[in-house]
Design brief:
18 helices, oxidoreductase, FMN binding, TIM Barrel, about 45% helix, EC 1.1.2.3, globular, eight-stranded parallel sheet, FMN, two-stranded antiparallel sheet, alpha/beta, single chain
């Protein structure tokens, strides 16, 4: 007699903890608070959110803000959202090489950390923390004339890094030459001349916050102490916050720029500086093809297409949109770097795909600095590296050279 075969009975048992843990999302406990904080940041925007909570409003707004209505910055970021990448398939991208050559030397990423002033205001570790993170990542770092660390002290703090020095030409040319000589003596091989600041941009958030350097103690800042005690404790228990290049100024950022910087700067001054400096010379802040041609004719080694992160002229040209015409005008006579609006590794890929040799970032690493000091900067750079690597793999690009011509702006 035949019948329907009986089904085997399911054996039941109690689950083991090691089997339940993955389902519950349980991870090994990280005892270090800073590590836990930074691990939560999966993008630069996440680092910005952490930075906003950990620093006084006036300090965060100084980094995050732009000039007037913020149109230049908004348009720069929107331009990256319009980029279309050319993906190729069936390419071996098991190993992706993100390195490139910047001004004759290898860089692990096509990335340069831009000069930013008053860096110890964002975090008490300041410029040395940024330079050490850049050295670990194998990329250049640019110390600002308006930095809170001297060229010599920065070089001593990060002796293995590739450190550049950024210069503003002051009305006092003798003082300017002293700065240039201090950079030369300290061993800097690259000078970055910023040319888009004849006067200070109208940064309304700074004006409304009453930001001064150093921060002044008033009712507003005293109230802010209660919300950000660790930031204030670090400020008040470390060396006084002051400029390394000038130790007597007390006022707003705009007042400092309008007092010290030379609005009469011309191409003759660029030629003068070229004669004074034998190392690499980079000009930052170019916003027109005509100016690019004149600067390249002056014998510079690199240019930065930039509108100062949208912090100077509002409604300025959008660097990414200008880039292809600039690359054509340069025609290989010097390297072309892009700045403004870059917040991810995919943005770097987009810029390289449209002809840039490398990118500069400022805000992005300052968000990391405010979020977690040197380790926060390192986290930002790790994000750039991983995002760039993944984007290249998805595009079928095994090297930086493979990216050339593989990005375009959609209408």
């Amino acid at each position: 007699m035949t019948g329907t075969p009986s089904r085997p009975r399911t054996q039941r048992r109690l689950p083991r903890w090691k089997e339940l843990a993955p389902l519950l999302g349980v991870r090994r406990w990280e005892s270090d608070r800073l590590t836990r904080r930074l691990q939560r940041a999966l993008t630069v925007a996440d680092l910005a959110d952490i930075a906003r909570r950990r620093t006084p409003r006036s300090v965060f707004d100084y980094v995050d803000g732009a000039a007037e209505a913020g149109l230049s910055l908004e348009r720069a970021r929107h331009a990256f959202a319009r980029v279309e990448l050319d993906a190729r398939v069936l390419r071996d991208v098991t190993s992706v090489d993100t390195s490139t050559t910047i001004l004759g030397r290898r860089s692990d990423l096509p990335l340069i950390l831009a000069p930013t002033g008053f860096t110890r205001m964002m975090h008490h570790e300041g410029e040395p923390a940024v330079a050490r993170a850049a050295a670990t990542a194998g990329i250049p770092y640019t110390l600002s004339t308006m930095g809170t660390t001297s060229p010599a002290d920065l070089m001593a703090a990060a002796p293995t890094g590739r450190n550049w020095f950024q210069l503003y030409l002051w009305k006092d040319r003798a003082a300017t030459l002293e700065l240039v000589e201090s950079a030369r003596t300290a061993g800097y091989d690259t000078l970055v001349l910023t040319v888009d600041t004849p006067v200070a941009g109208n940064r309304l958030r700074d004006a409304r916050n009453g930001l001064t350097i150093p921060p002044t103690l008033n009712l507003r800042t005293l109230l802010d102490m209660s919300r950000h005690p660790s930031w204030w404790a670090n400020l008040l228990t470390t060396e006084p916050l002051e400029f390394a290049a000038l130790r007597s100024f007390d006022g707003t950022v705009a007042e400092l720029v309008d007092t010290m910087f030379d609005p009469a700067l011309t191409f003759e001054d660029l030629a003068w500086l070229r004669d004074q400096w034998a190392g690499n010379l980079v000009v930052k802040g170019l916003q027109s093809v005509e100016d690019v041609r004149l600067v390249v004719d002056a014998g510079v080694d690199g240019i930065v297409v930039s509108n100062h992160g949208g912090r100077q002229l509002d409604r300025a040209a959008t660097p990414l949109e200008l880039l292809p015409a600039v690359v054509d005008a340069v025609d290989g006579r010097c390297q072309v770097f892009l700045d403004t609006g870059i917040l991810s590794g995919a943005d770097i890929v987009a810029a390289l795909g449209m002809g840039a040799d490398a990118c500069m970032v400022g805000r992005a690493y300052l968000y990391g600095l405010m979020a977690g000091g040197e380790r926060g900067v390192g986290r930002a750079l790790d994000l750039f590296r991983s995002e760039m690597t993944r984007t290249m793999q998805l595009m079928g690009a095994a090297s930086v050279a493979d990216l050339r011509g593989r990005a375009r702006l959609r209408p």
